[in-house]
Specification:
CATH topology of the largest domain: Immunoglobulin-like
Oligomer: single chain
CATH class of the largest domain: Mainly Beta
Order of helices and strands: EEEEEEHEEEEEEEEEEEEEEEEHEE
Structural class: mainly beta
Distance between the termini: 52 Å
Helix content: under 10%
Radius of gyration: 20 Å
Strand content: over 45%
């Protein structure tokens, strides 16, 4: 059986919900591999978040997977900028690794990780480009007459001749509590990947042009809307889109061949991506 990476419903959450660790599962005749999930975030307090674990054998007893020692606390994690080593990360608990130096990612520089462990084959991630901030030229919130909805309209000036990938989030404040807003596009964008309060889309249909679109929110008791637009690396877009399709296949085809999830980790599993952020309050 081919090695597979099943996205289980009990996702292992990172410090923030935007980075998760699917549990990779190997066929019984293959050796475990290193699993690397990492995010380089230009606007986060911790600019680089890395989680290291190991894949598990395919077994019939789920409890054996849940009780297994997944996290690795003794890996050597190297961080490179434009192929130059700039830091060796330290373990901070439960498989999480952090920078030892304060680092500000540079737009259009490439970044990658290499991970070493005595018990596993060494792995490295593909190099990812740290993207520019989205150029949001318009963001307007307008109430819809005789309804309980607001329209959020935004415009982006997209950089030409570059494949850009965007992740849009919306939160609404109700009774002093910020919650994910359910958002739906008023227009059609090809290849959209979506979730609760999240839309991820490429610039395939508006490369180098000004792009305007809108989404609706329910405005009952909403006092504030936080509109966030990330530019993300292609690896994140591919991973999110792949997970959606494979999860759908799993529900539709119970007896189908297990699907392989997208990974940009050579000799292992996982996803390393970068993002830059614009946040607007409306």
């Amino acid at each position: 059986m081919k090695s597979i990476n099943i996205f289980l419903l009990f996702m292992l959450l990172m410090t923030s919900c935007d980075l998760y660790s699917p549990l990779p599962i190997e066929s019984n005749d293959e050796n475990p591999k290193l699993v690397v999930n990492a995010l380089l975030d230009g606007h986060a307090t911790n600019k680089l978040r890395v989680h290291i674990s190991q894949s598990q054998p395919l077994v019939s007893d789920t409890n054996k997977i849940l009780l297994a020692n997944l996290y690795l606390d003794d890996a050597v994690v190297l961080f490179f900028e434009n192929d130059e080593l700039i830091d060796t990360l330290i373990h901070s608990g439960e498989g999480y690794y952090q920078l030892t130096n304060e680092i500000i990612p540079t737009v259009n520089y490439t970044y990658r990780l290499e991970v070493f462990h005595d018990d596993f084959e060494n792995v490295k991630t593909e190099a990812v480009l740290f993207p520019e901030e989205a150029n949001v030229t318009t963001s307007i919130r307008t109430a819809v007459a005789h309804s309980n909805k607001d329209i959020i309209r935004f415009s982006i000036d997209d950089e030409a001749a570059v494949s850009n990938f965007y992740e849009m989030e919306a939160e609404s404040k109700v009774d002093s509590v910020m919650e994910n807003a359910y958002i739906s596009f008023g227009g059609i964008i090809p290849d959209v990947a979506c979730g609760l309060g999240v839309l991820i889309f490429p610039d395939y249909c508006f490369d180098g042009e000004s792009f305007t679109n809108e989404f609706e929110i329910t405005n009952t008791d909403v006092t504030k809307v936080i509109f966030t637009l990330h530019t993300v690396s292609e690896s994140y877009y591919k991973s999110y889109q792949n997970q959606q399709g494979t999860t759908l296949d799993a529900f539709q085809q119970v007896f189908a061949e297990p699907s392989t999830y997208y990974s940009n980790v050579e000799n292992g599993y996982g996803i390393f991506y970068a993002r830059n952020t614009v946040q607007i309050e409306l």
